[in-house]
Amino acid sequence: MYELSVRQHALALVAQGRSLNSVSKETGISRYAIRSWQTRIEPLPRILGAPIRDTPADPAAYSYLLGLYLGDGCLSEHAHGGHYLRIACADAWPGLIEECRTAIMDVHPQTKVYILQRQGCVNVTSYSRSWPYLFPQHGTGKKHERRIALEPWQQRIVDDFPWEFVRGLIHSDGCRITNWTTRHISGERKRYEYPRYFFTNKSTDIRNMLTGTLDALGVAWKQANAWNISVARRASVALMDAHVGPKY
Predict the structure, then answer these.
(1) What CATH number belongs to 169-243?
(2) The domains spanning 59-144 and 169-243 adopt the same CATH topology
């Protein structure tokens, strides 16, 4: 997240003929962020007349957090303004809880993150006035009962960091499991195990976001049933293992 004055300074340096690399090194701002400010045509959103810090400080972390949010996240309004971001994480996956907490801090360094214990899970929670602008999919009702679509700037981040997005979706509403079967070979019945990935979400829009990204990455998938996406081919599972992996 960057103040408007910081953005203006970085863009002024670029306007002087400086390269994105040199401006990034001098200011500590990623080239992606500077480039996105150059191409941004929509006005900066405002709250109470002040510019909102609506650019993720770490686009890769945002792509992962976006996947978590679409799967198990929500925004709730505070009585005095601003919103709480809440990501539900099962107690069984302490590594996921920590990764979620870290991603929120990387995306919005100015905010605080705390853990609210619930039965069998925790809500990784953070308060900010910026969350509705960083997650414009927020709305009334359940996600699968309304249209969910990414804004152009969000899609650009997903296109730049697709594996992080897939990882966030799988870590929220997906899993890596090991199936097994038996075969008769030379008169003996032998057991074979093979891993696969599943993603389960009632929202057609969110499932399509996953499958479209998987297509772009060359990962083969199948529609297992109405709500489930399966990745089972050996080469595709190997790709998922290299970039996603099981929850822990």
Answers:
(1) 3.10.28.10
(2) yes
Cα dihedral sign, 5-11-13-16:
negative
Domain boundaries, the chain: 4-41, 59-144, 169-243
| CA gap 97, 111 in Å, rounded | 17
Cβ-Cβ contacts under 8 Å for 21 (sequence gap 6 or more): 31
Instruction: Report whether CATH 3.20.20.140 matches the domain 59-144.
Output: no
d(CA 218, CA 235): 10
The full 3-state SS of 46-90, as one line of letters, equals EECCEECCCCCCCHHHHHHHHHHHHHHEEEEECCCCCEEEEEEEE
Question: Model confidence over 206-245: pLDDT tens digits?
Answer: 999 999 999 999 999 999 898 999 999 999 999 999 999 9
Residues 108, 82: contact at Cβ < 8 Å? no
- For residues 193 and 209, which has the higher predicted lDDT (pLDDT)? 209
User: Could you give the dihedral angle defined by the CA atoms of residues 162, 70, 38 and 6, in that order, rounded to the nearest 10 degrees?
Assistant: -120
In terms of Cβ atoms closer than 10 Å to its own Cβ (0-12, 13-18, 19+), residue 153 is middle
